[in-house]
Every structure is written in C-alpha cells, then in structure tokens.
C-alpha cells in the first residue's frame, strides 16, 4: 500500500487546526487504498498550536509532528517537513485552509498517471487587495524575464510531490530558500490543476509587505545573476555617454574657450552617477550577502521534538 503524507507547516494556527484535521480526513476517507500521514511542522508557534497537534496525535496515530526549536519561517518549515515525511507522495498544504484539501484526490489521480509534481494554480485570489495582486503579477513577470528557470505564476506551495521530487528538494540545502523556484528547478513531470483559493479561515496572514519584498529579492538573487549583468551593461552605457560628452566638452573648450559655467550639469552628473554606483553596490551586496550566509553552512533548522518517540534525534537529516 502506498503512503500519502499531507505536510502542513503551522505557525500560530490554533483556531484552524481542528477544521483542518476534519476536512483533510473526510477527504482522505474517500481514498481507503492509501496509508495516510498528516505531518505538522510546528514552526515555533507562540499560541496553543503545539498542544492541539499533540492532542490530535493522542487521538489519531496518523497524525505526526515535528516541532522546530523556534520560528524559522515557512520555507524552512517546509524543508523540515520534507525531511521527515514518510510518504511515497507528499502533499504540501497551508494550515489556514486556503488550499482546499478537496483537490487531493484529483492530485493523487494525476500522480498515479505518472506525474511527479501536480501543482494547484489559482484561478482567482479571493480576499486579496488589488494592490497585492498587481505587485505579485509584476514580480512574476520580471522574474520570468530575468531568470532561465520558468516559475509558475499564481501558484503557491500547494502541490503533490512524488518521492523523486522530495529527494531532489532535500538535496537543495541552501539557507536562504526560495522554494517556489526550486520546485521548477528540480524538474520532473509537472501537471497543473486550477482551483479557487479561499480566504484564510481565521487569524491573519503572516505576510506583510516588508516580508514580501524580502521574498521577492530572495527570488531574484537565488535564481539569477542577471542584475549583476544589467549593472555591468548600465555601467558601460553610462561610461560611453560620459566619454562622448567629454570629447564634446574638450572640443567646445578648445574651439570657443570656456567661461566658468556648468554648475548644473556638473551637479546632475555627479548625483546621477553617484546614484547608479550606490544601486550597483547594493546589488553586489545582495549577492555577497547570500554568499556569506551560504558559506556558513549552518544546519537549516533544529528540531525540538519529533512525535513522542523522539525517534529521529539520532539521525538528524543534514
Ligand atoms: N507559516 C509558517 N511559518 C511562518 C509563517 C507561516 O509555517 O513563519 C505557515 C502558516 O501557518 C500557514 C502557511 O505557512 O500554514 C502560509 O502562511 P500564511 O497563510 O500566513 O501565508 P499566505 O497564505 O497569506 O500566503
Ligand atoms: Mg494563508
């Protein structure tokens, strides 16, 4: 019998967990031919999330959990979950029920047909402001143009992954993770299904614009070095312009002499070039920062506990 793992990263989700449990298992009840595992990764929640998960585990041994030592963020929580998932296929699902579990049977069906990565693409984004939609779409367009890896637009982390994909993702152990890009990067046979994303069932989104900007920069710097290339091209363009301008000034001075003038042009040139230099330094800094973080080679996360048995304390997966 094949095993399906439903992987749920959870951070302060106490209100939705019971609904989530009920909905997932009422869906999975329609698929009696599989072993099931519901794996929660508690990402350092500050509310009762962990005790609710433990309570569910008491009632139902199909529930298991990994408790991280602090809040590491969703990207890291997901890799922790993939490390501990036992399933032949892993379905990643948000704890707030924005990703309807009712899609799971369809995903599994495609998986049985031989697809390795069945991802759910949003037909609509209910409960999100037009500003968020617009910025998200702009970001995807830019990223797609800059990087060689095609990144699926309007697709979250809600997807079914075959064991092959899971093993591949487990080998990508970079500290600053942009999982959305990694799903594409590892390749394998992909299948898209469409769905309507619901507004979250309770609580608030953990994303704010600061974090989204971080994620966007993460997305760009982890998947393409083209900003560095653009900087070089920009530098060349500006120097070429400066050279032509210089020739013109020398010619003008020789031909017509020079009464002291040119404060505005001098000032704008200095400011313009100074600005460009700062931007380019910043871009180089972003990449250097990544190099700095990756070379430390720290483990991605620490486990506080795993189920009750603490089975895997012996073989921490890194
Ligand atoms: N999450 C997490 N760690 C965090 C933030 C979020 O594990 O630091 C989980 C959260 O519990 C939820 C999922 O990631 O299951 C998506 O979070 P959220 O709903 O806040 O994001 P959104 O749906 O708004 O993109
Ligand atoms: Mg959500």
TrEMBL record:
<dbReference type="InterPro" id="IPR029044">
    <property type="entry name" value="Nucleotide-diphossugar_trans"/>
</dbReference>
<dbReference type="GO" id="GO:0016757">
    <property type="term" value="F:glycosyltransferase activity"/>
</dbReference>
<dbReference type="InterPro" id="IPR050256">
    <property type="entry name" value="Glycosyltransferase_2"/>
</dbReference>
<feature type="transmembrane region" description="Helical">
    <location>
        <begin position="233"/>
        <end position="251"/>
    </location>
</feature>
<comment type="similarity">
    <text>Belongs to the glycosyltransferase 2 family. GtrB subfamily.</text>
</comment>
<keyword id="KW-0328">Glycosyltransferase</keyword>
<keyword id="KW-0472">Membrane</keyword>
<feature type="transmembrane region" description="Helical">
    <location>
        <begin position="263"/>
        <end position="288"/>
    </location>
</feature>
<dbReference type="InterPro" id="IPR001173">
    <property type="entry name" value="Glyco_trans_2-like"/>
</dbReference>
<dbReference type="Pfam" id="PF00535">
    <property type="entry name" value="Glycos_transf_2"/>
</dbReference>
<keyword id="KW-1003">Cell membrane</keyword>
<keyword id="KW-0378">Hydrolase</keyword>
<protein>
    <submittedName>
        <fullName>Glycosyl hydrolase</fullName>
    </submittedName>
</protein>
<dbReference type="GO" id="GO:0016787">
    <property type="term" value="F:hydrolase activity"/>
</dbReference>
<keyword id="KW-1133">Transmembrane helix</keyword>
<dbReference type="GO" id="GO:0005886">
    <property type="term" value="C:plasma membrane"/>
</dbReference>
<keyword id="KW-0812">Transmembrane</keyword>
<keyword id="KW-0808">Transferase</keyword>
<feature type="domain" description="Glycosyltransferase 2-like">
    <location>
        <begin position="5"/>
        <end position="167"/>
    </location>
</feature>
């Amino acid at each position: 019998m094949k095993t399906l793992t439903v992987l749920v990263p959870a951070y302060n989700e106490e209100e939705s967990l019971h609904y989530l449990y009920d909905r997932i298992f009422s869906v999975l009840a329609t698929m009696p031919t599989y072993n099931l595992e519901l794996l929660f990764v508690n990402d350092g929640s500050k509310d009762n999330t962990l005790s609710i998960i433990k309570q569910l585990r008491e009632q139902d041994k199909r529930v298991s959990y990994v408790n991280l030592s602090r809040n590491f963020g969703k990207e890291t929580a997901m890799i922790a979950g993939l490390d501990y998932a036992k399933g032949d296929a892993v379905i990643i699902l948000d704890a707030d029920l924005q990703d309807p579990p009712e899609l799971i049977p369809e995903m599994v069906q495609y998986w049985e047909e031989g697809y390795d990565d069945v991802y759910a693409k949003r037909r609509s984004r209910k409960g999100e402001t037009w500003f968020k939609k617009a910025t998200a779409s702009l970001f995807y367009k830019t990223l797609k143009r800059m990087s060689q890896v095609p990144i699926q637009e309007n697709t979250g982390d809600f997807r079914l992954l075959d064991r092959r994909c899971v093993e591949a993702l487990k080998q990508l152990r970079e500290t600053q993770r942009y999982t959305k890009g990694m799903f594409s990067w590892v390749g394998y046979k992909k299948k898209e299904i469409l769905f309507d994303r619901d507004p979250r069932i309770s609580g608030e989104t953990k994303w704010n614009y600061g974090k989204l900007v971080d994620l966007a920069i993460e997305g760009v710097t982890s998947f393409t070095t083209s900003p560095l290339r653009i900087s070089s091209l920009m530098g060349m363009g500006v120097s070429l312009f400066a050279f032509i301008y210089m020739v013109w000034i020398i010619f003008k001075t020789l031909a017509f002499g020079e009464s002291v003038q040119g404060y505005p042009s001098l000032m704008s040139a200095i400011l313009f070039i100074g600005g460009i230099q700062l931007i380019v330094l910043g871009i180089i800094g972003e990449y250097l920062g990544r190099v700095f973080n990756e070379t430390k080679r720290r483990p991605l996360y620490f486990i506080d506990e795993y189920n009750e048995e603490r089975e895997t304390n012996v073989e921490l997966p890194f």
